[in-house]
Each structure stands twice: as structure tokens, then as C-alpha cells.
Amino acid sequence: MAKTKKKAQPKPASQPKTKSRAKTIGRPRKEVSRKEVDDLIAYQATETEICGHLGINKGTLLSRIREWTKDPEICYSAYFGQKSGSGRIKLRKLGFKLAANNAAVCIFLHKVYLGLSEISTLNINNLNEEYKDIPTEDLKAALAAISSKKDDS
């Protein structure tokens, strides 16, 4: 008895693949709100804090920033520098409003913006040659004596 070959059945005509039928590879795309990222940067949030809050990794955040800016070379710190100024301005405005009614805030702002300080500093580099040979312990003792005289008055 001789074996006979079966004829191959013709395959049904395949339909062209469309996007809806195409298989997706990998995770679904995580949507990230540009406004939310910019708001978090305005609050001076770090890259790690933003990623933790949004539930994404640093690579995803960087990819979105590059998409938004259309700059393939931009890094997080450059984007942070562009967007963080608005948060500092808001904080500064709030500080000045608070200073009108709060003496501690007023004193703090005077120190920060006007360079006022309660502690005097001495620039040792500008001392005359004759004073450079004085031992450090003697200088500390002299400064402590001067400081205690200031406190008494």
C-alpha cells in the first residue's frame, strides 16, 4: 500500500493588520500631566520626589520633559531651572506679606535680603603681617572676650 500525500488546504485570505489589531509590546504608556510636574517643581520638589509622587521612574519623567520641550538634549536640572523661579517668587511674596504682621519673619527677611547679621565675621586674610604669628587659641580668647563685652552692654 502506497502512501498518498494530502494536498495542503489553501489558507483563508488574511486581513491586513490595523492598529487596533496590532499587538502592543511592553507596558501601557503612563500619562504624566505637565501642569502637575510644573506645579511640583514650583514647590521645589526634587526629581526623586516628583517620580515617587507620580509613580513613575526618572527615565519616564525625562522622556516626558523632552517631549514637552521638543529638546532631545534637555536634562531635568535645566528644566527645573526654567520652571522653579515661579515657586520662589510665590514664596518671596508670601514672606513679605507675613513680615507685615510677624516680627520673626521680618527679622529673617532683613537678614536674608539685606545681608544683616547678628554675628560679625573677621577676614583673617586681611590681617597685617604682625598679627599673623598670634596663635589661634589667643585669637579665640580675644574674640570671646570681645563677644562677652557686647553681650553685657
Notes on the structure:
The chain is mostly helical and 153 residues long. The chain folds into two domains: 34-83, no CATH class; 87-152, no CATH class. It contains seven helices and no strands. It has helices spanning 34-42, 47-54, 58-69, 76-83, 85-99, 103-114, 136-152. Helix 5 packs across helix 6. The chain is elongated. The protein starts with 33 loop residues before the first helix and ends with a helix. 4% of the residues are buried.
List the helices and strands and how they pair.
Elements: H1 34-42, H2 47-54, H3 58-69, H4 76-83, H5 85-99, H6 103-114, H7 136-152
Helix pairs in contact: 5-6
Keywords, please?
about 55% helix; about 150 residues; single chain; mainly alpha; about 0% strand; 2 domains
The helix/strand class is mainly alpha
> How confident is the prediction overall: mean pLDDT?
80
Major β-sheet, in short? none
Low-confidence stretches: none
Rounded to the nearest angstrom, the radius of gyration is 34 Å
Percent of residues in beta strands: under 5%
Number of strands: 0
What is the N-to-C succession of helices and strands?
HHHHHHH
Helix share, percent: 40-55%
Shape: elongated
Measured between the Cα atoms of the first and last residue, the distance is 126 Å
Number of domains: 2
**How many helices in DSSP terms?**
7
Compact summary:
The protein is mainly α and 153 residues long.
